Prior knowledge:
alpha+beta
Amino acid sequence: xxxxxxxxxxxxxxxxxxxxxxxxxxxxxxxxxxxxxxxxxxxxxxxxxxxxxxxxxxxxxxxxxxxxxxxxxxxxxxxxxxxxxxxxxxxxxxxxxxxxxxxxxxxxxxxxxxxxxxxxxxxxxxxxxxxxxxxxxxxxxxxxxxxxxxxxxxxxxxxxxxxxxxxxxxxxxxxxxxxxxxxxxxxxxxxxxxxxxxxxxxxxxxxxxxxxxxxxxxxxxxxxxxxxxxxxxxxxxxxxxxxxxxxxxxxxxxxxxxxxxxxxxxxxxxxxxxxxxxxxxxxxxxxxxxxxxxxxxxxxxxxxxxxxxxxxxxxxxxxxxxxxxxxxxxxxxxxxxxxxxxxxxxxxxxxxxxxxxxxxxxxxx
Length: 365
Ligand code: AMP
């Protein structure tokens, strides 16, 4: 079978690596000749929004999926119109690309989310803040990621000029959540409607970028998280892996955002689950049976941001597994990660502390 992937970064690379053992031949579409997935997949070097390039890319494929949520919805619709299985489908992307559409969907489905309002001018912000209170978080509705395109408004002095500084409009303001922790649930739904839910991930961010994700089998918030994401899967008639990021307030979960794709907070599943999120994405998208998602040992993942630590030092840590994305170093860029797996939570924390120290010494932390 042949699987097409729009986007050729590290997520496509890990999807391709999971596809090969299943006898699936991966093909990626990415305009950058240096795209990291090109080392492990057939690489079509073309843009995502050119109808002829899309048609060439799609020739002979059994299904198409995406590694990033900001793929043009029109491109997905064009591919789907050609009788090709595009999974997940365009609807999930339309919701994930616009924070207002996303939060409206949560609300429609009864999934709690922080209070929010659309902001297209400074007056909208003033009115919304009068209702939501401060602190609040102002974000771009579209194309924000890793904390880019957002500002925390702590007090009234942060309001003047705030809308202008984020581009003048097309914004959302949300109530600031004093969360106890951030969690996510990675779910997968097969073409036959079969669903599986990975153990909850507990995620630590710094500077808006995910740094550490821990697998939390048996977490008390899991059932609540699963109930929320299951509603999204059904409503969107979703096929593939879906990540739902949430704030744990201590008095329940509030949905922050969805990613209609494999997600950084699920990378630990390569070594820390029976079947990784990448393999299950390949299985789901091609209509194959899903694999079990049970935890294997205790696992956590550390992102390498900015630059990679020396492989020798990572591999010297017992239970550590290295994933180098073969990207050139750059401040703020995710260039690789390591998963550590251990027999006990205590042993996990010891090894994890060593990995975090390496990430901080050699990268941006
Ligand atoms: P986002 O781009 O929405 O995922 O936001 C990036 C990070 O900013 C989140 O992982 C949180 O750490 C923080 N953040 C986003 N929205 C809020 C909020 N409403 N209240 C508090 N922190 C937030």
